[in-house]
Amino acid sequence: MRAADNVSEQRLNQRLAALARLGATPAGGVNRPALSLADAQAQELMARWGQDIGLEPSRDAAGNFFLRLPGGPEGAAPVLSGSHLDSQPTGGRYDGVYGVVAALEAAQALLEAGVPRRRPLDVVAWMNEEGSRFAPGMMGSSVFAGARTLDEIGAVCDSQGLSVAEALRATALRLAHIPGRPLGGAVHAYVEAHIEQGPVLDRAGVPVGIVTGIQGKHTFRVEVDGEAAHAGTSCRAERRDALLAALAMVRALTEVMHDAEDIVKFTVGRFEVMPNAPSVVPARVVFSIDLRHPDTGTLRRLSAQVQPLCEAHAGPCTVQVTRLSAADSLVFPPEMQQRVKQAAEALGIPAIALPSAAGHDARYLHGIAPSAMVFVPSRDGITHNEAEYTDSADLAAGARVLTEVLQGLLA
What we know:
Blueprint: H1 9-20, H2 37-52, E1 56-59, E2 65-69, E3 79-84, H3 97-113, E4 121-126, H4 139-144, H5 150-154, H6 164-174, E5 189-195, H7 200-204, E6 208-214, E7 216-225, E8 229-230, H8 242-257, E9 265-267, E10 271-274, E11 280-281, E12 284-293, H9 296-303, H10 306-312, E13 318-327, E14 330-331, H11 334-347, E15 351-356, H12 362-365, E16 371-376, H13 392-410
Parallel strand pairs: 3-4, 3-5, 5-16, 6-15
Antiparallel strand pairs: 1-2, 2-4, 6-14, 6-16, 7-12, 7-13, 8-11, 9-12, 10-12
């Protein structure tokens, strides 16, 4: 009675294609910000698919979406599996959403195989994993796991000044037909399928990755304040140019973060200049810092240098550095890694072990339940890009391994 044999490659790809139309970009990618209309539409579509096969949809106060496959005695802690539905502004068709659709496919395969279950399975789509509209990311999973509070995330605003709390209320009104559920709760185990978002599996020609852990990530917001002045009349010596100060900070940080092995990942991905007018000396600059390293000690050492370096290069301006998140490196439990390995072996699907260079919601679930991840290849390692692609057969292979792991956890 192997549920993985009921995984449908065609059904999996049809659902991915349908979700890709919600927030579709002209270049074939997806722009589906967290708590946007397209995000709500994606949850509605997932709810319909789930209800069609007997799953029970629900949402919690943090905007996390669930589909429950009942099982076991009342009150039994569920197994959770999923990822996220939100995307980057020029995101691909598979990042995040594959894990949600693969978990739904696993639930349907379990139903079709008539597998007995000692506990429920919750397919989950976590709110705002990407952090592209509201920073930092992984908001829904962190609140679910108790690492952040609703008040903390609720106060965060997007570039238009709309807060997470306001966006949550608006989305809840639109999705009022989906029942509510309590926030958090006991979890028996968590398994997340995801595209690798790197080149390792693709270069190795291997369809499945057994994820050993997630490298650490610290993020910051840097706000540089100077003074607006006329570009044609203000003297250089008297200027408080926020842009020049910010560039000096980025240059200094880049030099300190450089390593010959290219292990440190330092990124300034957002840079806002105000008033952003051709004939005005910039009065204010806000930029982001994304710093990652697989060794927690190294990450913390580099992270500790961000604020003093920014302050040392502020010149005549003032600077405020805010740490948005500080997630250290982690290793998934060996027994959970072993479950993924044994599932792949039982199905005859080649698999190799590798760490995740990108962050995932599994980071926060790891803190409250035994967790694991299943990777499938990203062609040429391309991700957070409209050209993102994973072969249909690899998507199905990952879903089959996920189903086998979930069947074992539910038994």
